[in-house]
Amino acid sequence: MKVNIEDFIARTGLKEPLYPGKKFVQVCAVGPFKSHSIVYDWHDPTFLRIEIKAGTSGQVLPIKELRQYPISFQTATHVVIEMSEDDGDDGEGRRGTSGSGSRAPKTKSLAGFMKVAEGKIPAAGKIVEMVVMGKDIAQEAFGVVFDALTAQIEKLKMSPTDLLAKAGKFITKYTPPAFLEAKGDEDAKYVYDREKIDPMFGISPG
């Protein structure tokens, strides 16, 4: 699924420069075992990875600590976007900034990323992988889930359970948390039962 990177940046109002080689952490909440953050990882100029993580450091927490967080933050939730070599905007591209107005530093990259090396972000990208709460989302649900993710980032109020509900039946594989042993049925069809699951996270029906 193709995405408009410029639109994503405009909607979410990112406060940090975004450019290849960059990784920054945006904190969404702070509190005992409820802190979580959004990690933007563009170390590889070809791919931008957006990930929801427990804690405020953007790092993987020790298993002993991670187990005390809600299950929605224990398991992986991320989107991987392949950045296009074609800016899609008459060759101008977007300057390597978000809300700060800073120019992105130059980066060593392939010929297709010469515009990026000049401080311009490709306007277009393509979602190549989407995982919500450890469950691989099928391409059919990329659009609706990414829209919901963007809206959550805009409000700095992340809810992986809501993202999973948006995916509906389009889930292809389940990955358990790091501290749980795989049972061998992770490829089985997953059914999200909102009436049973939402109350576990303090979400009221309706």
Overview of the molecule:
By secondary structure, the protein is α+β, with helices and mostly antiparallel strands. The two termini are 30 Å apart. It contains seven helices and ten strands. The strands form two sheets. Strands 1, 2, 3, 4, 5, 8, 9 and 10 form an eight-stranded antiparallel sheet that branches. It has a two-stranded antiparallel sheet with strand order 6-7. The longest helix is centred in the C-terminal third of the chain and has 14 residues, at 142-155. It has helices at residues 5-12, 63-66, 71-74, 114-117, 142-155, 160-167, 194-197; strands at residues 2-4, 22-29, 36-42, 47-54, 77-83, 94-95, 120-121, 124-132, 135-137, 171-174. Helix 5 runs antiparallel to helix 6 (160-167).
In short:
With 206 residues, this protein is of the alpha+beta class. 22% of the residues lie in helices and 26% in strands.
Helical content (DSSP H or I, runs of 4+): 10-25%
Order of helices and strands: EHEEEHHEEHEEEHHEH
Contiguous runs where pLDDT drops below 50 for at least 5 residues: 87-118, 186-190
Q: What is the overall silhouette?
A: globular
List the total number of helices. Answer: 7
> How is the main sheet built?
8 strands, antiparallel
Write down the overall mean pLDDT.
77
Rg, nearest Å = 18 Å
Strand content: 25-35%
Q: Output the structural class.
A: alpha+beta
Number of strands: 10
Q: What's the N-to-C terminus distance?
A: 30 Å
